[in-house]
Amino acid sequence: MFTLSAPILLRAYAAGIFPMAESAESRELHWFDPERRGILPLDGFHVARSLRKTLRRCPFDLRFDSAFRAVIEGCAEATDERPKTWINDDIVRLYGDLFDAGFAHSVECWRDGRLVGGLYGVAIGGAYFGESMFSRETGASKVALVHLVARLRAAGFALLDTQFVTEHLSRFGAVEIPRNEYRRRLAAAMERKTDFRGVDQQAALAELLESAATSPG
Questions:
Q1: What's the pLDDT score for residue 4?
Q2: Distance between CA atoms of residues 28 and 102, nearest Å
Q3: Are the CB atoms for 118 and 134 separated by under 8 Å?
Q4: What is the spatial distance between Cα 146 and Cα 172, in angstroms, rounded to a whole number?
Q5: Is 87 or 67 the better-scoring residue by pLDDT?
Q6: Average pLDDT, the chain
Q7: What are 37's strand-pairing partners?
């Protein structure tokens, strides 16, 4: 029986393809290569006024890669807004392997020693492939996303892939581009040398808030 491995998954990402399961109970993964791909331009990021106020208050303790598997488990939780998840056991296993190999990263929001939100994704060269995010407290996933973008910009990344564009992501400036344009940008980003962990996060956040466009809300 064929077993999908982390190296095969990396090759798929490099080719512009990503997997999803139909549900948490599903034993199969399906490959996706959309005709139009969602990206979040790092130089066209929008931060709402209300979110800027939240960031200045620093309501959460931000950490990176300290609880990767707990972040995936948080993303897999069923909620009223998202009663069905696409994260099954194979997804948990595969991305855990990618994390162990240094290719997957999490951004985490903590309060009083409790994980209250975050996101995870895969990094290859100068491309970061965002997978999923979650919140157990208001605004936690939004704060995690802003910190992710700040870190990617400071570390020299060129592409933040969101797979699809949701109403939530469009508020940050996410757009769709044709498959051929996505692959062109992906190929260029993959050639970059980056260091996700070697960033002064406070300086990166300050630079982002200084330069990012302000959106209402």
A1: 84
A2: 25
A3: yes
A4: 9
A5: 67
A6: 92
A7: 177
Q: Which domains does the chain have, with CATH numbers?
A: 6-214 (3.40.630.70)
Closest CA to 12 of 118, 103, 119: 103
Contacts of 201 (CB under 8 A, 6+ apart): 62, 64, 147, 150, 151
Helix H or strand E encompassing 128: strand 127-135
pLDDT tens, residue by residue, 140-180: 999 999 999 999 999 999 999 999 999 999 999 999 999 99
Task: Evaluate whether 98 touches 104 at the Cβ level (below 8 Å).
Answer: yes
Q: What is the pLDDT of residue 1?
A: 39
**Token pair in block for residue 107:** 């951004």
Q: Quick check: 58 and 143 in contact, CB under 8 A?
A: no
Q: Which amino acid is at 134?
A: F
The pTM assigned to this predicted structure is 0.93
- Across-strand partners of 39? 161, 175
Q: List pLDDT tens digits, range 99-137.
A: 999 999 999 999 999 999 999 999 999 999 999 999 999
Element (H, E) at 48: strand 46-48
**CA-to-CA separations, 54 to 133, 157, 205, in angstroms, rounded:** 18, 25, 13
C-alpha span between 162 and 142 (Å, rounded): 14
Rounded to the nearest 10 degrees, how much is the dihedral formed by the CA atoms of 10, 109, 147, 158? 10
φ, ψ (nearest 5 deg) of residue 94: -65, -45
